[in-house]
Amino acid sequence: MKRTVILMAVLVMFPVGKVLAHDGMDMGAMNAKAASSEGVGVVDSADQRKGMVTLSHEPIASLGWPAMTMDFSVEDKALFSKLVKGRKVHFRFSKHHQQYVITEVR
Ligand SMILES: [Cu+2]
What is the pTM of this model? Predict the structure, then answer.
């Protein structure tokens, strides 16, 4: 019984995988700072038709995120002119309806 409790505590403290990592952080930092965040990352792929981009971003301290590769949605199609595969970009994003949406790229 006691071992089970300890195991669960360890799993909660050290979630595995990027999806769990984000879910865990949504509770605190993300909700507290719902407005928008800034990041730096390299474009791994961009799909203008789907409005999606995959970035390998550096740690985002304001959200407590480690460096990771993840998908963002892009509603403003004009941003795809800057979301070129292999390019390092500075970007701003916010959370809309359970998705991270890029709102600015430079
Ligand atoms: Cu991320």
Answer: 0.68
The answer to whether residue 1 sits within a structural domain is: no
User: Ligand 1 centroid to 7 CA: how many Å?
Assistant: 26
Evaluate whether residue 94 is within a structural domain: yes
User: Residue 78 Cα, ligand 1 centroid: separation in angstroms?
Assistant: 22
pLDDT tens for 11-58 read 455 454 444 455 555 544 444 445 899 999 999 999 999 999 999 999
Q: DSSP labels for the chain?
A: -HHHHHHHHHHHHS--SHHHHHHHHIIIIIHHT-S-EEEEEEEEEEETTTTEEEEEEPPBGGGTBPSEEEEEEE--GGGGGT--TT-EEEEEEEEETTEEEEEEE-
CA–centroid distance, 55 to ligand 1, in Å, is: 8
Domain that holds residue 100: 17-105
**For ion ligand 1, residues whose CB falls within 5 Å:** 65, 68, 70
